[in-house]
Write a structure and sequence with these properties.
globular, about 5% strand, alpha+beta, about 230 residues, four-stranded mixed beta sheet
């Protein structure tokens, strides 16, 4: 039992930290966001809502400059002021911004927030267990290896979530009569909009899949649906 205790403590610590992080995120969003009210976007939001049999979809503006969208742990959907400003000046179309909302709706519908809580707890337990074992075999370096392996696992699981949210958004956009092309066109712009310029960490360390992989997956979905429609 004594050997298991550190792992159980790691799980409890991870759960507590996740809950605290979710609470802190909610307070930050509450204090720095307002509901989006844009007549140019309303018709598209109404089409998404109709496709989901919902009366409406609420989207909030998060008052920060980086270009991003996010689904809060409580299910609210946000786009940043920086993203909305790109739409206002014509760098992003209304349909492309709608594809961001559809993607974030995917995270909510697929329960990714709850899954991340479970995964985060498991990863912390794995990190602790590996550190205990490897720390004895390779003192000093063992803890570093354990942290690296846990980071790789977290990145892979996060990329899986992004692919799933992309596929959900593609299906929703298609049902709403918007189609997947706005998703694809936005991905072509995304590195430039976010200032990454295509540079960064290796794909296997990134929390999001490489842009080319996401576009390829969407085109594969589109091709499959076209074949299904013809049969």
């Amino acid at each position: 039992m004594l050997k298991v205790t550190p792992i159980l403590l790691a799980v409890l610590y991870a759960l507590a930290m996740y809950r605290f992080s979710a609470w802190r995120t909610a307070k930050e969003l509450d204090s720095r966001s307002t509901e989006l009210a844009d007549p140019k976007l309303k018709s598209l939001m109404d089409r998404l809502a109709a496709a989901l049999d919902l009366p409406r979809i609420r989207v909030h503006i998060y008052e920060i400059d980086p270009v991003n969208g996010l689904a809060a742990p409580d299910g609210r959907i946000f786009v940043t002021r920086g993203f909305y400003n790109k739409f206002r000046v014509g760098e992003v179309s209304a349909e492309e911004l709608a594809s961001v909302v559809a993607h974030e709706l995917g995270h909510v519908a697929l329960g990714h927030s709850r899954r991340r809580m479970i995964d985060f707890s498991g990863q912390n337990a794995l990190r602790t267990a590996l550190a205990m074992v490897l720390g004895r075999i390779i003192p000093g370096v063992g803890i570093w290896i354990a942290n690296a392996l846990a980071t790789l696992l977290a990145a892979r699981l996060s990329r899986q979530d992004e692919f799933e949210a992309d596929a959900y958004a593609a299906a929703l956009l298609t049902k709403a009569g918007i189609g997947i092309e706005p998703q694809i066109s936005l991905f072509h712009k995304l590195d430039g909009l976010s200032g990454r310029g295509g540079a960064g960490a290796p794909a296997w360390l990134l929390s999001h899949p490489a842009t080319e992989e996401r576009i390829k997956a969407l085109r594969t979905l589109g091709a499959r649906w076209s074949v299904d429609d013809q049969t």
